[in-house]
Amino acid sequence: MAAQSKGRRRGLALALLLCAAGAGCHHTGPTVLCIPPEFPRELDKASLPAYTVEPPDILLVEAVRAVPKPPYRIEPMDALLVQFATPLPNTPGTVVVFVEPDGTINLGPEYKGSIRVAGMTLPEAKDAIEKHLKSLDLRNPTVTVALSQSRILQRISGPHLVRPDGTIGLGVYGEVRVSGMTLPDVKKAIEAHLASYLLNPEVAVDVQAYNSKLVYVVLDGGGAGQQVVRLPFTGNETVLDAVAQVNGLAPVSSTNHIWVARPAPAGGPHQVLPVDWRAVTALADTGTNYQLLPGDRVYVAAQHLVATDTFLARLFAPLERVLGVTLLGNVTVRSVDGQFTSGSTGP
């Protein structure tokens, strides 16, 4: 009892110290909730710092400009722009053809046959196409060949998972370390890496899935374990949002003992922000409906009576089992003894 009284006095002294420091205080029964005013809340949220990329985020990378360094070698899945000086009647003067997986292109049914261009430069592909057109006895087989779309775009553009080692893969162009960087830094890192293969590359980078930043809701089971739910952090969640995403409070939860535990560096002071649940829900009071930050724990304690009942049940269950076995054994011995007694007194 003396230790409990000492603990209450210490807690009250801490509350008074916070109040003296300018925190806003709320009285919930015998509990004094002193909340520093600088913590962001519902209707008074703060803009968060620039997002830092970490595993396992998913980045969306789009190649804005991806011009290969000369001499460029044509490969399957490239798209070539072919312009005819004198096209056949009823055929377009310019066509876009894709290089097939076997390395050939087909100019259409009017220009019979396929032409192999994979591994060639654009001038070599021009010569190969003109040679094919000459075999068809065209009057003027001259063409102009340009690269319409490179397979490079397909290898760079798309979603990229940040690997456990903090890198993303760019196919044949290797990998780039992005962990701990902001999006502008990631953009610069990717462009600097691609500069070894492309002329003045430019990419656009955004986050497709925010997987690395989480908040936690811990529901105490009153001595029967604890349920921990991980929720993705998007920067706009409050305490009420987090509890709503876990389908509300459990039947054993206490509405008078809810708080937000905010992590701090090892050895640093802990930040515990009490939540007045009734005020947040029934009165729409935003004073303790805090804006959550990455790593926050919304802790919901169990009702004291439930915890006490679970403790007593576990304490007395072994005794009940022992007494039950003893009683059963006593009844069995008496029953057997009664049978022998009745047998010995018979005729």
Write the layout of secondary structure elements.
Elements: H1 2-20, E1 24-28, E2 31-35, E3 58-68, E4 79-84, E5 94-98, E6 104-105, E7 115-116, H2 122-135, E8 143-149, H3 151-156, E9 158-161, E10 167-169, E11 175-177, H4 183-194, E12 198-209, E13 214-220, E14 226-232, H5 239-245, E15 253-262, E16 271-275, H6 277-281, E17 297-302, H7 304-344
Parallel strand pairs: 13-17
Antiparallel strand pairs: 1-2, 3-9, 3-12, 4-5, 4-8, 6-7, 10-11, 13-14, 15-16, 15-17
Account of the 3D structure:
- The protein is α+β, with helices and mostly antiparallel strands and 347 residues long.
- It contains 7 helices and 17 strands.
- The longest helix is centred in the last third of the chain and has 41 residues, at 304-344.
- It is elongated.
- Mean pLDDT is 82; it is low at 1-34.
